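Two proteins were folded this term; both appear here.
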Amino acid sequence: MVGPRRQPSRKGSMADVPEDLFSEIKRLEDMFMVDTTKLKAITDHFVSELAKGLTKEGGSIPMNATWCMSFPTGYETGTFLALDMGGTNLRVCEINLPEEQGEFDIIQSKYRMPEELKTGTADELWGYVADCLQQFIEYHHEGEKLDKLPLGFTFSYPATQEHIDHGVLQRWTKGFDIEGVEGHDVVPQFEAALEERGVPIKLTALINDTTGTLIASHYTDDEMMIGCIFGTGCNAAYMEHAGEVGKLAHLNLDPKQEIAINCEWGAFDNEHKILPRTQYDVIIDKDSPRPGQQSFEKMIAGLYLGEIFRLILVDLYAQPHVRIFENQDISSLQKPYSLDASFLSDIENDPYENLQETHDNFVQQLGIKTTKPELELIRRMAELIGTRAARLSACGVAAICKKKGYKTAHVGADGSVFNKYPHFKARGAQALKEILDWEKDRDGKRLGRGRDPVEILPAEDGSGVGAALIAALTIKRVQDGLTVGVKNAEAMLKSCAPAKKS
């Protein structure tokens, strides 16, 4: 059985750790390490669950059809707007796609979302968004007479989409609680605010940031076949053939027609059949706002890594046979979600042999003074939690590769955990190697292209460039008479300046 080698944080670092803490380290290693055999079993189950989500009956993984129905060619041209409505900021981008293949120019502005908007009225919300777009256009196109500019809107809230230019909000997240929006198509409300102000914009595509990541990454690298987000949450998107999507059979699409699928794979294994959940994962799920949901996400996403770490320390402190933080007040540590993934990231990034930075962080943030053995335990815990997250994340990527038969591929990834958490990329790459059984020649080099067959690489800007590209692709499709998945195709053709055909 191949798997990650057991090793302490640094050579010789466990020599002075007392038996009670050393035995806890071994127990946590047994609990959090995921060997190759388990990774492969998880991946195989993941493949079957992806397929189940595409059926008419569906499954735990939603596998939402996005109505983005092709990759970009790299020859898309024209000027497009992109709008990204986050919890804190509103970002507006103008993307110009020139004649050169795979190139783009971008200008952008950010507008802070006033807190009072989040609990205001729907008219106030959409009015503010429309005002920001109007300001952007007046500033960058002063005195110009414009046709309606096509807009790709990254609306990163749970929405049901039967068309690419439509979306019914299921529920608000990110602190929003505005009446009259949930259960409604957000597009007419948004467009009414634009119309009232005479803003020359036509919403062309309502997208998810993961789908945008896939499309933007493929635009600059045609080996990109999967888009992923590894951040506060986790998700993936990829292109599927319509013939594989049983839930769309009633539309009689060409079986070979491609359509981007927004997996929403954080819901993988909600039935708790295969993931190696620990007692701490069970507590996180039980105490969450939605127990029994997002099981995969709760083990790998940035929102939960610090909480897993905190729960372990609180549990160890409560054990009479474990001497940790003796005679100290741990009330700060007992507050749920008081530690985030960056706290673990700082521990793993601590460059000092004596873990001085970690010691100082515990004093400053938690009011706890740590001993050298306690610091070694803390360092190993962070490594175990971070490594498990990266290795489990690789199961989702490997599952899509296996389902699609990809022997080689690039995967575009974005999100704070992927970009900032130390060793996440290397640990994920190692897990992919184990799951997909990459062979080597006698010199130890990989057979094939001289590098990992499947590589997870930093993604292009999905909510900016990706949103604009999907708007371009939608207009091109409507111009070609392919209107399936487009609600207002006729209005789109009339109102948008024609995008040049590739």
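Next, the second protein.
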Amino acid sequence: MRKVLRDSGMVIWRNLLGVRRNPAMLTAATVQPVMFVLVLAYVFGDSLGGGPYREFLMAGIFTQTVTLNAAFTTIGMANDLQKGIIDRFRSLPMSRVAVILGRTGSDLLINVLGLAVMSICGLAIGWRINGGVVDAVAAYGLLLLFAFAMSWVGALVGLVSRSVEVAQSAGFLWMYPVTFISSAFISLTNLPGPLRAFAEWNPITTVSDACRRLFGNPNLAPTAGWAAEHAAGYSVLACVAIIAAFLPLAVSRYRWAAGR
């Protein structure tokens, strides 16, 4: 375990150096979320309740952004494969898991930056944390846990993609339907039966709802059922299940890719 953590730390540092040398990579993690906040708050917000909707909106945007940021992992893994970096790592006496763990770890730090930028933007448009400090920390912790889980999905997608171009398309292909079929931005009452059932058990719905409760924000789209009543617990279980499912798949695919 010590070797895995040491090697993962080196890969994290290598990935962050790449970001420092190419700051444009942070555009999607900072500028894009701000655009979502402003567009949804001012274009749709005034027609959907004004201030209360803006407070309702922020938890959904937080959750959507950490989900979309899994594309960093997807593109990063595909890029390393295409450029032969994985072959170089394979020649070094380092843990195989460390390469993927380093990628997901560095992208987790990028998510920290993205959440900070969005929080500042949210405060500027009227969003407030009305709960306690401990609850707010728990909300951000849940968002980062969910971001880490989504990164493992992104890692697997990147490893099965044949090129960076394919990874860019595949990385977002599954994200938008999963993100928007949820209560992140709207009420589920008008969705047809199958979509509503999916949305009620969608982790994006429960993470958004749990964060609203922890932040003390109004929930203008309350959902019913066991998952809604235990939103925080269900979200944590969903994150653990996603990591448990995709971590071994990603590692197995990495070993296959590195051994071609």
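The mean pLDDT is 84. The radius of gyration is 19 Å. These notes refer to the second protein only.
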